[in-house]
Amino acid sequence: MYQRSTPSLSTLRKIRIPATQWRAVAKFLRFALTTTFLHAVAASASGGPILTPKPGPQPKINGPTVYGARRGKPFLYRIPCTGQRPLQFSATGLPASLTLNNETGIIEGLAPQVDGSYPVILKATNRKGTVTRKFIIVVGDRIALTPPMGWNDWYTHYDRVTDAVMRDAANAMVASGMADFGYQYVNIDDAWMVKPGSDDPMLGGAPRDADGAIRPNRRFPDMKALAAYIHSKGLKAGLYSSPGPLTCAEFAGSYQHEKADAQKFADWGFDFLKYDWCSYGSLVPPKGHRTTEDYNKPYTLMGNLLKEQSRDIVFNLCQYGQGDVWSWGDSVGANSWRTTGDLGIEPRTSLPGFYTVGFANARHADFAAPGLWNDPDYILIGNIGNAHDFVQPAKLTDLTPDEQYSYMSMWVLMASPLFFSGDMSKLDPFTLNILCNSEVIDIDQDALGRQAQVIAKNDSEFILAKPMADGSLALGLFNLGREEKKMSVEWNQLGLAGTQTVRDVWRQKNIGHSEGQYATTVNPHGVALVRLSETSK
Ligand code: GLA
After folding, report:
1. How many CB atoms within 10 Å of residue 329?
2. Rounded-to-10 torsion of CA 168, 174, 175, 180
3. Which of 180, 189, 190, 342 is catalytic?
4. Quick check: is 276 catalytic?
5. What pLDDT score does 476 carry?
6. In the chain, what is the greatest distance between 2 CA atoms, to the nearest angstrom?
7. Can you spell out the DSSP letters for 11-63?
8. Does residue 249 line the site of ligand 1, with CB under 6 A?
9. Superfamily, domain 60-139
10. Percentage helix, strand, coil, to 5, in the chain?
11. Average pLDDT score over residue span 156-166
12. Ligand 1 center–CA 321 separation, angstroms
């Protein structure tokens, strides 16, 4: 509506304005532009209040403080940093096998040959100031010491994904500022390979070459060049396969070609593999008759192969939580495992589907640790496709702003991998405010690597508490009801004592001191996300 009442720029250019009227015209223009902008933001943001403070012009380094790499393997890390450009980066304590580009903040090279902890101080400077942040590189067997963060194309592009979509997403990850908050992986989901039997010339053909190597479909002319492009931005590239003969969308899977595929993925330069059960179910006894070995065999095979490769490849299991995957994911070399079915098709109850998935995922808190993460699936906000009908165009989420704050808060408290799966070409300010709050992300990326414990769960409330490396406690009070609600939690429920300083994490503001309990009023389907630290005497 606002577009119709606001003159277009070309119309304005044609109007001749007497010099005496310029002040009034300027005033009108300021009004028109402001209202247009506000309407545009409101329209694209479901009218939600933006709680995340805008990052200042001073440099601020974000992201994890601990980072795992394997001996002698290629290393790539773009220092996530907000602040006015140009920035100058430097680092002290960087192992000799690594180099930092002072302008881009990209660290590259080979991980040291000797296992151990390499403490580094990262530094960023601009005209407004200087900041440092500790960053410990831990060389050893474990990678993904904090939950991986990035974007996965599935819920926007489904079986239409292309090389151009992935390159554009990498560009958008940098241009939108997401990379400055630690988003790093740009991951292709299903549908990059050949679709056996398809008569679509872009998708059909022989799934493998004469040597048995997997072939991408015609929408992906050069996988190696694609990974290199993503790497050139300092980002990492991920892809997808299935241990079955076919993927869930019926493209070629890795069954009986696991070794060749693992080698190919590494040779192309990919850093992340999502390995999705799909048609593997036809190779084992029916549900109810399967052993744990039936479930973990294909993952053991691929997990071992990935470790033999010449690069670090994060291994993401996707088999929907079957066979209690959280209890054996570590033993097959997984870094994360989906704990439930697809969030995008999870039916709404009195609450949107992400709550059901979140409640289920929360039960497995004891299995999360650095390098080992429960995965409750992607962050489906912003412009998002319809998982029941791929043909429908992506549209703005119908989650309320409070539900979106709850979604992100629940995911970070659960130390979940943080993968946005909405449309990267239509990132609106409200969505970015949900995805890019450095203090919210710090909860997820905390070096202790603990998943929040459930403190309370009933029909009207859900309370999660996550111990943090600095001794503080991240706490989320989720109101599950349709009315505003007074909520509280006692120190003895949290193992706390004395006076605690309370910080509102979304607003990045201390809001006072509390003794004995924390009490607040929470919006319908909303959350209070706070961090409690012992008040110094
Ligand atoms: C399964 C997975 C989804 C997605 C699709 C692709 O449903 O759980 O995350 O990867 O397959 O076909």
Report:
1. 27
2. 160
3. 342
4. yes
5. 99
6. 86
7. HHHH----GGGHHHHHHHHHHHHHHHHHHHHHHHTTT----SPPP-SS-EE-S
8. yes
9. Immunoglobulins (2.60.40.10)
10. 30, 25, 45
11. 98
12. 13
State whether the beta carbon of 246 lies less than 6 angstroms from ligand 1.
no
Ligand 1 pocket residue status of 190, Cβ below 6 Å: yes
Give the pLDDT of residue 37. 31
Q: State whether the beta carbon of 342 lies less than 6 angstroms from ligand 1.
A: yes
Q: What's at 269, amino acid-wise?
A: G
Q: What is the spatial distance between Cα 427 and Cα 178, in angstroms, rounded to a whole number?
A: 10
Testing ligand 1's pocket by substitution, the residue of 154, 159, 379, 386 carrying the most ligand atoms inside 8 A of its CB is 154
Cβ(318) to ligand 1 under 6 A?
yes
- Region of poorest pLDDT, from 40-54, 296-310, 356-370: 40-54
246 CA distance to ligand 1 middle (Å): 12
Q: What is the mean pLDDT of the chain?
A: 92
The phi and psi torsions of 2 (rounded to 5 degrees) equal: -60, -30
Ligand 1 close to Cβ of residue 158 (< 6 A): no
Helix extents (H) in 445-533? 491-494
Distance, CA 390 to ligand 1 centroid (Å)? 12
- Of 155, 157, 187, 190, the one to substitute when testing ligand 1's pocket (max ligand atoms within 8 A of C-beta) is 190
Average pLDDT over residues 288-312: 98
Predicted pLDDT at 330: 98
Q: Which atom of ligand 1 is nearest to the CA of 249?
A: 12
Q: Is 342 one of the catalytic residues?
A: yes
pLDDT tens-digit readout, 314-355: 999 999 999 999 999 999 999 999 999 999 999 999 999 999
- Fold classification of 149-444 is TIM Barrel (3.20.20)
Contacts of 268 (CB under 8 A, 6+ apart): 223, 224, 226, 227
pTM of the model: 0.92
- Stretch 199-209: mean pLDDT: 98
pLDDT of residue 362: 99
Shortest-distance atom of ligand 1 to CA 338: 8
Q: Which of 159, 163, 271, 276 does the annotation list as catalytic? A: 276
SS (H, E, C) 358-371: HHHHHCCHHHCECC
Of 400, 482, 463, nearest in space to 434 by CA: 400
User: Which residue shows structure tokens 């933006």?
Assistant: 50
State the distance from the centre of ligand 1 to the C-alpha of 190, rounded, in angstroms.
7
pLDDT at 536: 80
- Over 70: is that where the pLDDT of 223 sits? yes
pLDDT at 38 over 90: no
Question: Into which CATH architecture does domain 453-534 fall?
Answer: Sandwich (2.60)
Local confidence band at 9 (pLDDT 50, 70, 90 cut-offs): very low
**Cβ of residue 192 lying under 6 Å from some atom of ligand 1:** no
Residue 259 Cα to ligand 1 middle (Å):
22
Domain ranges of the chain: 9-46, 60-139, 149-444, 453-534
Instruction: Please check whether the two domains, 149-444 and 453-534, share a CATH topology.
Output: no
In order of 44, 199, 237, the CA distances from 204 in angstroms are: 38, 6, 24
